[in-house]
Each structure stands twice: as C-alpha cells, then as structure tokens.
Write a structure and sequence with these properties.
Strand content: 15-25%
Helix content: 25-40%
Bound molecules: glutamic acid
CATH architecture of the largest domain: 3-Layer(aba) Sandwich
Number of domains: 2
Number of strands: 14
Order of helices and strands: EHEHEHEHEEEEEHEHEHEEHHE
Largest sheet: 3 strands, parallel
Radius of gyration: 20 Å
CATH topology of the largest domain: Rossmann fold
CATH class of the largest domain: Alpha Beta
C-alpha cells in the first residue's frame, strides 16, 4: 500500500496567520485522515524576504494549534547543492538554457497568464557578447493538465500561457518552481494541499517533474482569503493575525471555511479534541470548489 505523505511548506516571512492556518489544517487532515505522514518544510530560499525567527514562531504556532508534524523539518536554504545539480542536469540535457536577458528584455514578449511570455531571445544560444544571467526551462510541454483534488481539471498550454520560465534566478538562487519540485520529491510527498494562489504554478511543477523523470504528487488547491480588491491577504497585512487564546474557535472557523460540518459544541473542546474530530471527519469533497473567499468586515472571513 502506498504511504500517503502530505506537507506544509510555509515561507518564513512573518508569523502564521489565519489564511495559512487553513492551508496547514487542510493538508494535515488530508494526510492524517488517510493514515499518512505530514511533513514540514521551511521555504527560506529567498534570503532577503526571510524574517529571522519567523520559522521558529511558525513551528511553535502550528504545534500550539495541535498540528504536529512528522520527521525532521527540511530547510530550503540547506538544499542549494541539490538545486544546482538539477539545474546543471537540465542544461546538459538541453531542456534548459542560459538566458542573458535583463528583466526588461525578457518582458518584451506577448502577454501570458502571469505576465509577458519570454520572447525566446536566448533559446538557441546566448547572443554574442552577452553573459548568462538566469537559466530557463523550455516550455515545450504542450498542454499540461492537472486533475486537481478540489478545483477539478486545470490545464495550461505551457508555451502559450507561461513560456520558457526561470529555474535559476539571476542572483543564482533556485526559483520557487524548481525548489518545490525537488523538495517534494526529496520528502516523498504524495499529496500536496495548498492555497489556490499556487494553482497556476502547478502545470509548471508537473512539467519540471517530467523533465527530471520524477513522479508528481497529486494536488489539491483550497480557496484563499482575499480582500475586497481580490488581493490575497497575507502576513504583511496583519489583517488575519491569529489569537493565542481561543485556538479551538479559530480551528472551528477554519473547518467551516473548508466546508466541513463541525458540531456547534466542538469549539468547547480542547485543541487536541478539535483536531481529532477534524481528522476523523475530514471530507475533501466538501471543500468549496472556488479559488477565493472574500474577507468581510468580520474578524475572519466568510464565503461570498
Ligand atoms: N512557500 C509557499 C508559500 O508560503 C508555499 C509553497 C507550496 O506549497 O508549494 O506560499
């Protein structure tokens, strides 16, 4: 039988907030309700964005909310050699190429889903006199379709929608898309549950898996909380700070937003009691098939 492995992979850019608690709880319940393991990874690749001590604060907050992880914690900052080896392998196999373009040059192509499509300038070799800055993966994938556990089928024509994308940035740091694939593989992750803001990254990640001969996990993307303008509410806004007192109530609010049906009395139980109920009654089919929840003026959020 396959051992189910889920994971939660926060970026240590600030404290855990309500939006991230929902994602952590959903991935936890999805793994544990199937008797699986739930791993933790700290996505601290992007050094300038890392807030010292935020990793510890996130780890402690998860534990205080009853979300205990299995095994050692993986830190992306310790995985640089693995990322570099994968980039080298993809270049050697001509699946990736060196790119000399500045940000402005790279953005001169037609519009894609997430900004301009790379115009292809360095695809067949660096222009004379130019030096490599970034490394890009060729988007020669055709249509990449994902059977998302929550959102249903999601597909992109990678070349037309995204274009050749960066796997090693000009500052030498591995791009999120590559690092997350290598780390999910390293940790043996079989099921990724995360926020729907990452749904559009998923075909790129599936393509990287294929290029590296790795088997992708299954994916499920839960709705994320957005403000009135449709922007994801995050750590920087402080709008969704967690309360260290009424943890049970906040967990029950998360369960309600995840479409679960906790009994009214559940909030009176201990944190461990709420978590046990959540794992035992978890039903991923009940998670709303939508990408966002709009935040109301209430303390947390409600569906719109
Ligand atoms: N570190 C990412 C974040 O905090 C999540 C990465 C992932 O789940 O793939 O948004």
């Amino acid at each position: 039988m396959i051992q189910i492995v889920g994971r939660y992979a926060p970026s240590p850019t600030g404290p855990l907030h309500f939006g991230s608690l929902i994602a952590a709880l959903a991935s936890f319940c999805q793994a544990r309700s199937q008797g699986g393991r739930w791993l933790l990874r700290i996505d601290d690749l992007d050094a300038p964005r890392v807030v010292p001590g935020a990793d510890r604060a996130i780890i402690d907050t998860l534990a205080a909310f009853g979300l205990t992880h299995d095994g050692p914690i993986l830190y992306q900052s310790q995985r640089r050699a693995a990322y570099a080896a994968a980039v080298a392998g993809l270049r050697d196999a001509s699946l990736a190429f060196d790119c000399a373009c500045s940000r402005r040059e790279a953005q001169s192509g037609p519009a894609g889903l997430e900004g301009p499509i790379y115009p292809g300038t360095c695809r067949d070799g660096l222009p004379q006199g130019r030096c490599a800055r970034a490394v890009r993966l060729r988007a020669d994938a055709g249509v990449v379709a994902v059977a998302d556990r929550i959102q249903g089928r999601y597909a992109q024509d990678l070349a037309a929608d995204i274009g050749d994308f960066v796997i090693r940035r000009a500052d030498g740091v591995a791009a999120y898309q590559l690092a997350t694939v290598l780390d999910d593989a390293e940790q043996g992750v079989t099921e990724v549950i995360r926020g729907a803001d990452l749904l559009s990254s998923t075909p790129r990640q599936v393509w990287i898996h294929r290029c590296l001969d790795l088997c992708p996990p299954t994916y499920g993307h839960i709705p994320v909380i957005v403000d009135a303008a449709g922007e994801k509410l995050g750590k920087s806004t402080g709008a969704l700070a967690l309360d260290s007192v009424r943890r049970q109530e906040q967990l029950v609010q998360c369960l309600l937003l995840l479409g679960q049906r906790p009994p009214a009395a559940l909030a009176a139980h201990s944190v461990a009691g709420v978590i046990d109920w959540a794992v035992e009654h978890w039903d991923a089919d009940r998670v709303p098939r939508r990408r966002t929840y709009r935040r109301t003026n209430a303390a947390t959020a409600a569906g719109n």
